[in-house]
Amino acid sequence: MQYPKAEIGVFGGSGFSSLLEDAIELKVDTPYGAPSSPVMLGEIGGRDVAFLPRHGKDHEYPPHMINYRANVYAMKLLGVSRIIGPNACGSLQPGVKPGDFVICDQFVDRTWGRKDTFYDGPTTTHVSSADPYCPEMRAIAVQEAKRLGITVHARGTVVVIQGPRFSTRSESKWFASQGWEVINMTQYPECYLARELEMCYCNISLITDHDAGAEGVEPVSNDEVVRVFAQNNDKVRALLHAMIPALPKARDCVCSHALEGAAF
């Protein structure tokens, strides 16, 4: 089936139910099943954009039940070459505070059982994830966040836990002791699946809370995550509206040729 085309994709997260105004809704079928919801197609700054809420329109898919392969493949079918993934995250370090943004450059995977590759054979394919986030997109995200006056951390490691439960205090202290800055439940395999399809991916982590291991703060709760994310929705929207028009048309980053030499 021929679908309308978009250039840039956005996966929304907790508390971020819509992005585009006057958009059209499109049902996309993939070989991996249905994505979390129909895709919204619209325009930002003269660029064609596809928006998909990763948890579904009514947040009906918890992190461990999201069909990540269908979501990412739906973007590929629409012609998307760059994906931006804003999401709600916890802080593991005292210098990273609620309301801050972190533009992650690394992840640590602590999930299990998720369908996390498009290459199940018969051709064995090993795609490098040494630097899993697009360096070109990351630089633009940091640049535009600073221009907007948003407190932004230019790099950071996100540890991705299985969910839907939050961490114990001991787990949280362990993650923090490794020097990791951010904790989240959806970055893996979303960003890696984009790399397997040679799409650029940039994470925008909005810090909503200090995780359970932080001294002197109440353990994270879902109500607190949603409340802080809602308070900062305008900042997320402003960054996306600034960042998307600033992305260059041409790509020559590591993401765009990730499959070179990857197949046996």
Structure commentary:
By secondary structure, the protein is of the alpha/beta class. The protein has a single domain (8-257), classed as Nucleoside phosphorylase domain (Rossmann fold). It is built from 6 helices and 11 strands. The protein has helices at 68-77, 135-147, 169-177, 187-196, 222-231, 233-246, and strands spanning 8-12, 24-26, 39-44, 47-53, 82-91, 101-102, 106-110, 152-153, 157-161, 182-184, 200-210. Strands 1, 2, 3, 4, 5, 6, 7, 8, 9, 10 and 11 form an 11-stranded mixed beta sheet that branches. It is globular, with a radius of gyration of 17 Å. The mean pLDDT is 92.
What's the structural blueprint in terms of helices and strands?
Blueprint: E1 8-12, E2 24-26, E3 39-44, E4 47-53, H1 68-77, E5 82-91, E6 101-102, E7 106-110, H2 135-147, E8 152-153, E9 157-161, H3 169-177, E10 182-184, H4 187-196, E11 200-210, H5 222-231, H6 233-246
Parallel strand pairs: 1-4, 1-5, 5-11, 6-8, 7-9, 9-10
Antiparallel strand pairs: 2-3, 3-4, 5-10, 6-11
Helix pairs in contact: 1-4, 2-6
